[in-house]
Amino acid sequence: MKKKVRKLIAPVIITCLVVTYFSFFLVMTVLQYMELWIKLLAMLFPLGFIGVSVFVLLERIKEVRSGEEDDLSKY
Hints:
Elements: H1 2-31, H2 36-66
Helix pairs in contact: 1-2
């Protein structure tokens, strides 16, 4: 059990940093004075990156729990 938790520490930390980084851009976009459609378009990119990084983290958690940690060993 401890081995699985150790393998998840780095992905969780990196995902938290990425989400924080793009959340900063999201907040800065909301605070800018520009037209609504430009603001919504500019908000799409940080939201997309946040969604993708959370999705990748969830996939990594599934891999570690199933015991399939090394994808390259298949090839």
